[in-house]
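for the record, two folds in this file. i put them one after another cuz i was lazy. first one right below, seq on top, structure tokens after. the second one comes after a little note so u can tell where it starts
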Amino acid sequence: GANCEAGLNDRVIANRLAYRFTDPKRGQIIVFEAPVNACGVGGTFVKRLIGLPGDTVAERNGYIWINGKRLHDTYVDPKLRDHMTQTWHVPKGKYFFMGDDRVNSCDSRVWGSVKRSSLIGPVLFVYWPPTRWF
């Protein structure tokens, strides 16, 4: 399956029209404009959608719980799980993103949820580097 361990130089194709007609779905890898303060750089990010508006997202010893139910995130390599324990509430109209390399990902756990208007679209495929094709 597809993973979301994107490097800074990865190039992806996103479906910019998708969210005009459908809602973002948990588990999708999405291109979005991150908040200006994100990781000291801001700009366009590619991460996996974990929390939907109104969700309570909890991370306990590397595993994610959504509204009290464990998320079956088999796409995360066991070596890339971190040991953070924290809980976040996703505000109305916002989305919570995480990278699959949980140890090294600077994501919503650091800079918060992303508003719907900042979502560009789901990734259709990665075209560079070829090693990330799925």
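(here's the note) second protein begins now
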Amino acid sequence: MQESPATAFRQQLESLYSISIEISRLHEMQQVLDRALGFCLDLTQSSFGFIGLLVNEGREMDVAAIKGFEPLDPNFYDNFRLIPVRPSVFGVVITNERSKISNDVLHDPDRVG
């Protein structure tokens, strides 16, 4: 039996309320970002996501939190923490000022590299 839209919406609101309560108790920015990202991934039922903070006058995103990706190279984040803001799967959120959901990044038309 599928839940009604009203039930799903109520559950989403309850989840958002839980997020606000839990995050308000955290004391370090990294904890806040990690927990907020975890809640967002749960809410959207996503397996991968990241939070990028705009730096260098908005030309780059600094990956401040990431979940669902474990690089083999231990220096990966040191080398690739900054992502250029350009039309790409990640960049269109900023360049087009709209959300982006991709269920197949390898074949996404916005994919670069």
